[in-house]
């Protein structure tokens, strides 16, 4: 899994005026912009607060066919801390990658520097057990855990032992032989 983008914003539901960064200020417009730029086929929203309004407004603006919108129920997976701890093995296994910039140094070498938004996500994930579980300072970490849980739920992201077992099960399964007499109820 590769992180592509991350941001925290407090925005009105709809606002077409661009912000200081040149991106739309409204929440729906910002999400639509990200989905179009990243060619997302699915948008997963946490089913809390204004998720229903946001989902309906995005569907109204872009239609039902471009991006599928799905609601994630956080209460099914426990608290923010429990959700983050359930994803710990994915980080430890090296399945989550973050983008970085390769910058040439004056001496001819290269230096790897992380983007500011990546540094903020990593910092929030690192301080997750020690921070306040309900604070806005952990929203990026909570969104990260929500995405990872969703990917695992639909088998798009698996640990190595899980993948090996699923492949063994898939290869070992053989369909039963077709019995025409039994099919037509003659036996």
Topology:
Elements: H1 27-37, E1 42-46, H2 51-62, E2 68-72, H3 80-86, H4 88-92, E3 100-104, E4 110-114, H5 116-126, H6 139-153, H7 160-172, H8 180-183
Helix pairs in contact: 1-2, 3-6, 5-6
List keywords for this structure.
187 residues; alpha+beta; two-stranded parallel sheet; 8 helices
Structure explained in plain terms:
- The structure is a single chain.
- The chain is α+β, with helices and mostly antiparallel strands and 187 residues long.
- The N and C termini lie far apart (52 Å).
- A hairpin with a 5-residue loop joins β3 (100-104) and β4 (110-114).
- The chain has 8 helices and 4 strands.
- It is 42% helix and 11% strand.
- The strands form 2 sheets. It has a two-stranded parallel ribbon. Strands 3-4 form a two-stranded antiparallel ribbon.
- The model has no long low-confidence stretch (mean pLDDT 88).
- Poorly predicted ranges (pLDDT <50, ≥5 residues)? none
Largest beta sheet: strand ordering: 1-2
Supply the number of helical segments: 8
Protein structure class? alpha+beta
Strand content: 5-15%
Q: What Rg do the Cα atoms give?
A: 22 Å
Largest sheet, in brief, is:
2 strands, parallel
N-to-C series of helices and strands = HEHEHHEEHHHH
Calculate the mean pLDDT score and round it. 88
Sum up the overall morphology in one term.
Answer: extended
The residue fraction in helices comes out at 40-55%
Distance between the termini: 52 Å
The total of beta strands comes to 4
In short, what is this structure?
The chain is α+β, with helices and mostly antiparallel strands and 187 residues long.
